[in-house]
Amino acid sequence: MSLQNIANPFSLTKPSTLKQLPSLKPGQMISAKVLELFPNQKATIQVNGKEIVAQLETALTAKKSYLFQVISAGDVTRIKKITETPQKNDGSIDRLLQQLGIPSTKNSRSLFAQIVAQQIPFSNKAGKELAQLIELIGGNNQNQQILLTMLAKDLPLTEEVFKSLQQILTQSLGSQMSELNDMLEVMLKQKSLVMNEKHFSLLYDKLQVILGNNLLTNEGNTKNYLTMNIQTINALLKKAGLSKEIPISRFLQIIEQSNLQHPLLSADQIQKSLSNSGMLAKLTNHLSSDDLVVLQKWIMTTSHFPIERQALEVLLQHDFQAMQHLSTKDKGLLQQLSQSSFYLLLKEAAKQLMTNQPFIHQEQQQSFGQLVGRLENALENNLPIGSIKSLIASHSIFSVLLKGLSADDAQFIRSWMDQNQPLNNSDQRAIQILTKVMGQQLTQDEMFVAREILQRLDQMNPNDPQSVKNHFITLIKHFIETSGIQDEAQLLKQKGQQIEPLSLKQTLLLLSQHSTDSIGDKMTRLLQTLTGLQLQMVNDHQMYELNLQIPAEKLGLANDIVLQFAGKRKNESDEIDPEYCRILFHLDLNQLGETMIAMSIQKRIVHITVYNDKELAPPLLSMYKPQLEERLEELNYQLTSVVWKKMSDQQIGKLPRQPYIKESTRTEGIDFRI
């Protein structure tokens, strides 16, 4: 994909209300067209397709373009004419550069002609910094596009920022990670990393998870991770209502005895193993009658829930290795069943808790919990609770928490809020519901561990769209949280406290200064790429923009997924307005090849354009459109159109290709659905 699309990710889609005016500041210069003149030296001027009313300092002619300087910006923008808009070949660019005190060179003339043509605001200081930078790095087209991106996004005009953005185009993120991963693997095996070996092992582990390598074959990493986080894992299981009476020591024992090189069994396979081996008869003298009844019911039924959960917990509770009169073979089978039961329940707990888990800051959780505590204290002391109920109802996370309740509980809380007098212990029930929903909210550490568990243990079925969807969502969330592209934002939220655990970016920063030339260079380049992705993010009180490259080996793709998102803030809050957003995917699918999907949402009306050169694409779109339309309607969105266009007919550049292709990921058939 060309850098123009990275700088303006939605250039292929229709204009919308998401487009913003450039933020004008006093002293800046910008090219604009005068549309209409009004009395009192006012005029409507057009900047990037948007119209603003400006107070003029000099007389102008309508329908002409000028280069203006901003005198003041506020409710009324005051501007003065510098010159008529310079044209590329009429010598006026030279006069502009002379006026700015910038040497006129081939590079500077070409760059400033584009700045004027694209109507990008710039100050005299920024102009001089750009002129120095382009002479340093060279004036080829790609370098100019990077500099224009830096100027348009108001990024620091430094060589370091330029290199970070340049690195995104030089080599894909996935290939950089894969090369560093391979080098670390060799060096760790050879014990050649004497200094900081612990942190290098941590870096290797992080790369393994992000790349989607099967960590079930890496027993040490997975066992160590689970052992180190056993307290958090125990909390997750309890919050999910699982394994309430099983001590942590039993979990540690199962982890230690686990043989992760063997494939984990499904619930059906565990059920069949118990049935076919006649194991229940052998366990008669070892298990309680209640436990035997649970296992017997499970074997005899095809309905797994909730009996499946109970049966798996029974298998977890007992140390079968200590049971006498069981053969070594039986103990081995029961050990494998216990191990699989543990991981099945762990995955279920992580999925259950992560499904519809709202993002709530820890400070918000604490303040809401304090209100619930005040409510409980007031009831115990027969104090009025009307004002506390009002504070709860107006709290920023109240509406979010309601979404996590059952329909009956949510309706009860709404009715309770409207009551002036309590009815039949309704206050006590309200406290129970609010306390329960607060107890289900994950801390930041718990959310991180839950997502890491899903990354490590979940197995994707490429033929199951639900499995692919879950993996895709998990992959994106995990990358955003662990890569480090949000480190600075997290530090602000945590008021400067150290982020734990270390992100990939923090680990690279820690190690890159104390490494050999070859591995240090690869870490520096990867660090620059992550910084480049971070620099492209926009997160202000009005807009949110995110540009990601996500390694997609785990989804069976040889090349990275490029995801670009732009959305509006909802009432200047942390929430994204679900009625307006634009999303663009760039994929290299095994069967359909290079594919770009551009989706725009305006007032909950959805328009999708698919760019692809394969003739197979239109029939597939027609086949799945009714299903997509139905699912969107369930979410209160209306699909208006799904349009196919040939990729080759569009002005779209190609993404950098990874130098490797995993043959094992290529299969015959159509690609999975996301």
Structure explained in plain terms:
The chain has 674 residues and is an alpha+beta fold. The chain has four domains: 3-148, Nucleic acid-binding proteins (OB fold (Dihydrolipoamide Acetyltransferase, E2P), Beta Barrel); 229-354, no CATH class; 362-439, no CATH class; 542-674, 2-Layer Sandwich (Transcription Regulator spoIIAA). The protein is 50% helix and 15% strand. A hairpin with a 3-residue loop joins strand 9 (576-589) and strand 10. Helix 4 runs antiparallel to helix 5, helix 7 (173-189) packs antiparallel against helix 26 and helix 17 packs antiparallel against helix 21 (426-439). The longest helix is centred in the middle third of the chain and has 27 residues, at 328-354. It starts with a helix and ends in a 29-residue tail after the last strand.
Summary of the model, kept short:
This protein has 674 residues and is α+β, with helices and mostly antiparallel strands. It has 27 helices and twelve strands.
